[in-house]
């Protein structure tokens, strides 16, 4: 499974010949200024919630690529009004068999509103179960006991979790989340972009390592094998 990191909580995964982009926030991120948004190809876009730092480039990328956007009902309606043609609604608790594998939409404990202030529906995370591996993207969230249910649905090869603290969980709770879902490998997102969420990279990697968890912190624009 190839994963490309585009900064903040935006990353892309290649699965079954399909390219899947998550939470597209690039043009508003000074740290990602070298990323050419128009060069990003994708077949699907998954959106965890409506905050600007997860949806800013969704409309432009969806229209440019023709990708199918997967999001909760309220975000799906908002995007449709913005001219996005291809959408698939998913709310927490639901699952769907896509061509690349099965996806379950799970609870995230956070807030959600659209960039225009309208209601953004329930925040969510996603669990992917495929023949190329299974992974959990939590979206922006607090630590929640619901995470313990995830390993009952699928064994998790990689947990993709926010680690910037203050606005989401930080390293300590992300480590507990890994243990809850049964993951020994994690990738950090939602860090460094703003002053509130800057982290010490080496210290954080060592925190995870002490608990037997490998933490991946790819550079923006870097593609890694997971």
Automatic annotation (TrEMBL):
This is UPF0173 metal-dependent hydrolase EZ428_17930. SUPFAM superfamilies: Metallo-hydrolase/oxidoreductase (SSF56281). Belongs to the UPF0173 family. Pfam families: Lactamase_B_2. GO terms for molecular function: hydrolase activity. PANTHER family: UPF0173 METAL-DEPENDENT HYDROLASE MJ1163 (PTHR43546:SF3), UPF0173 METAL-DEPENDENT HYDROLASE MJ1163-RELATED (PTHR43546). Keywords: Hydrolase. The keyword S-adenosyl-L-methionine does not apply. Residues 7-190 form the Metallo-beta-lactamase domain. It comes from the Bacteria.
């Amino acid at each position: 499974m190839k994963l490309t990191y585009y900064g903040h909580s935006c990353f892309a995964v290649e699965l079954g010949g399909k390219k899947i982009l998550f939470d597209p926030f690039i043009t508003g991120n000074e740290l990602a200024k070298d990323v050419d948004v128009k060069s990003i190809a994708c077949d699907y876009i998954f959106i965890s919630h409506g905050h600007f730092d997860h949806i800013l480039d969704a409309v432009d990328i969806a229209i440019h690529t023709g990708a199918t956007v997967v999001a909760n009902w309220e975000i799906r309606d908002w995007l449709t009004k913005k001219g996005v043609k291809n959408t698939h609604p998913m709310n927490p608790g639901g699952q769907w068999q896509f061509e690349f594998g099965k996806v379950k939409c799970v609870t995230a404990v956070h807030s959600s509103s659209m960039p225009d202030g309208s209601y953004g529906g329930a925040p969510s995370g996603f669990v992917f179960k495929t023949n190329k591996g299974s992974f959990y993207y939590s979206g922006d969230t607090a630590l929640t006991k619901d995470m313990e249910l995830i390993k009952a649905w699928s064994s998790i090869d990689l947990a993709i979790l926010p680690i910037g603290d203050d606005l989401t969980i930080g390293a300590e709770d992300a480590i507990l989340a890994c243990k809850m879902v049964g993951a020994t490998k994690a990738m950090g997102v939602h860090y460094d972009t703003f002053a509130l969420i800057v982290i010490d990279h080496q210290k954080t990697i060592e925190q995870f390592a002490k608990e037997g968890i490998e933490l991946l912190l790819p550079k923006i624009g870097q593609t890694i094998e997971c």
